Amino acid sequence: MSGLAIRIYGDPVLRQKAIPIEKIDRRVKRLAKYMEEAMDKANGIGLAGPQVGISERIIIVKVKSPIVVINPIIVYMEGEELGEEGCLSIPNVVGDVSRATKVVVRGLDLNSREIEVEANNLSARAFQHEIDHLDGVLFIDRAISIRKVEKF
Amino acid sequence: MKLTPTPVKLKAQELNMPVLSPEKLSDVRDKLRGFDLGVVVAYGLIIPKKVIELFPKGIINLHPSLLPKYRGPAPIQWAILNGEEETGISIIYLTEEVDAGDIILQERVEILPEDTTETLSNRLSIIGAKALRKAIKLIETNNVNPIPQENLGQPTYAPKIEPEMGEIDWSSRSRDIVNKVRAFIPWPKTYFYRSGTKIFILESEVSPVEGEPGKVIDIGEKGILVGAQDGSVWLKRVQPESRKAMNGIDFANGYRIKIGEILIK
């Protein structure tokens, strides 16, 4: 599983609804580790299972330090803000998406403990974006407009 | 077989004006005498010098482009194909060389992003009809100041469109694909093949999202997203040959199109 490739738009897995993870075992821990590597390598601030071809409900968000949440759900939302988003699975495109400015995400950590994460602003945006991936939803579905970004 | 009268013929009959539909203009030359000015719009036959000379004030012609650009039989289609944002109409004096006569007047017309040959032709014909009246007035009052086309630049040509030109090459630029779809509506329409079936494209839209040429990147409410050379193209409305027109998503469902498949012959 080393060197997981990021799946690109046009891969059916990105439109599938991911299934819940029933047991957080060695396989899942290894998956989380590889996802973090793939995310870092691509300079991302978040990644979801389907983006590495695993249609299971696991996300990682790293705005400051990395947080892995398994079977995440949003239990609280507040505020609204339009902001620019991109996605590692949709290269060279960005769009403006309206998201809550504060969310509380509930799920399990890698030790199978229930956790609640409060996230604000960019971090809140990232959680909403990654959790959407688990339902086969992409930011371009929610964007009011999308555009090409010039490569550096 | 029965010939259906054109709207022009019906209107002329209503106004008690004679209508001739000759195979050769020389057959009816004598019937063209006694008029001051001739007006030609969308006429398929070459008009010989001898016929032009029957009209003391000459013959004028409405051409749907800003001449000398897009001389020839398909100026509207080629303007859209080339992604022009502006075209227009020209009223010129008819000469033996096709679409090359001096210009009496021109009107500019914006090409909208959603325009097809059908919608643009409709606008141009309304503007063209008004301009013809204006031109006739100018001629009547001796106020014409004809401008030779060579004063306005190099001529370009808009050759006839053939149905085979409608086949989509997914390795073209997304913008060019969408322009072709627009240019080929209502006829002959662009198309691609899916498992041997010819599928006409009726409505499409450019997307900046990238994908392999011809690959189905996504299927959604908006239709089917297909990769092109740069970016991609939403197929919003299609028509399988000898079937009804349908939305892209209904076509995808009905024909079991899958994300990831490549649209090839």
Written overview of the protein:
The complex is a heterodimer of chains A (152) and B (265). Chain A has helices spanning 26-41, 121-134, 139-142, and strands spanning 46-48, 58-62, 66-78, 81-87, 90-99, 102-108, 114-120, 145-148. By secondary structure, chain A is α+β, with helices and mostly antiparallel strands. Chain A has one domain (12-148): Peptide Deformylase (Alpha-Beta Complex), CATH 3.90.45.10. Chain B is α+β, with helices and mostly antiparallel strands. Chain B has two domains: 7-152, Rossmann fold (3-Layer(aba) Sandwich); 163-254, Methionyl-tRNA Fmet Formyltransferase, Chain A, domain 2 (Roll), CATH 3.10.25.10. In chain B, the strands form two sheets. In chain B, strands 5, 6, 7, 8, 9 and 10 form a six-stranded antiparallel sheet that branches. In chain B, strands 1-2-3-4 form a four-stranded mixed sheet. In chain B, strand 7 and strand 8 (223-227) form a beta hairpin. Classes of the chains: A alpha+beta (152), B alpha+beta (265).
